[in-house]
DNA sequence: AGGAAGAGTGAGAACCGTTGTCAAATCGTG
DNA sequence: CACGATTTGACAACGGTTCTCACTCTTCCT
């Protein structure tokens, strides 16, 4: 049995903020957003808390093209993302076909302990002329 | 018309090394490998050369989970990778099914100008106990 | 409630991959 | 060969992230 994390003002602030956001944000953006809500939380703590939330599968983390880690509250379970590259709006998608394909390809080549990353980027309807 | 790059010892050394490797390597690993071949090339130059090769589509670049950019000589054309997370050995794979799935999902959600990233990580047969 | 134990916090330093700087070396053309 | 433009490389700078450690706060026990 793992130790439950303590219920601190900082963790509450981060978790509540994540509830209110609906796109991927960097740790630094989240830190800044907390300040603008007069909920000051140290940058280290923001990083630690987001990692903890990601470990607990309460947020998803993905790496942007320029190397930042982005976080977003997401539904549980394995899924992928369709992300608008203009406004950041994100749709969660599932692809059982893809999962099966990935497993089969890996197995055919003698690979085990498979994981995969799959993200789709595009321009959403409201960001198009 | 773009200016052709000069034919320097350093560029030749990097290009030749990439020919001999068959997995994704970080810029720093490539720099170290060059030293072990007595082909000293400055680290800045390694970075610059790899970026140039990637821009020219002569190598593929992808970001590892821990944020490093990894490079590998690859065949042209759209494909994905099955990468061993221990030894870096890489198999190029194609997934017409996945391509179609991604396009359909994007279209259903009103997204256009689609691109996607898909990499599969696992442990290859020879890296398993 | 009071208090001890120890998890959590945060300011700043450290870290690490990567990019920028600029004087010196090199390429290749005239 | 000589010249000008490109390239190189030692080193500094940068940016995101992690570490450190003294101090704070939660929690649990009585």
TrEMBL record, chains A, B:
Q: Which cofactor does it need?
A: Zn(2+); Mn(2+); Fe(2+)
Instruction: Tell where it localizes.
Output: Cytoplasm
One Pfam family of this chain: FUR
Can you name one GO molecular function term for this protein? Answer: transcription cis-regulatory region binding
Q: Which Gene3D superfamilies match?
A: 3.30.1490.190, Winged helix-like DNA-binding domain superfamily/Winged helix DNA-binding domain
The positions annotated for binding Zn(2+) are 84, 87, 124, 127
Q: How does it assemble?
A: Homodimer.
Protein's UniProt name: Transcriptional repressor
The protein's organism comes out as Aeromicrobium flavum
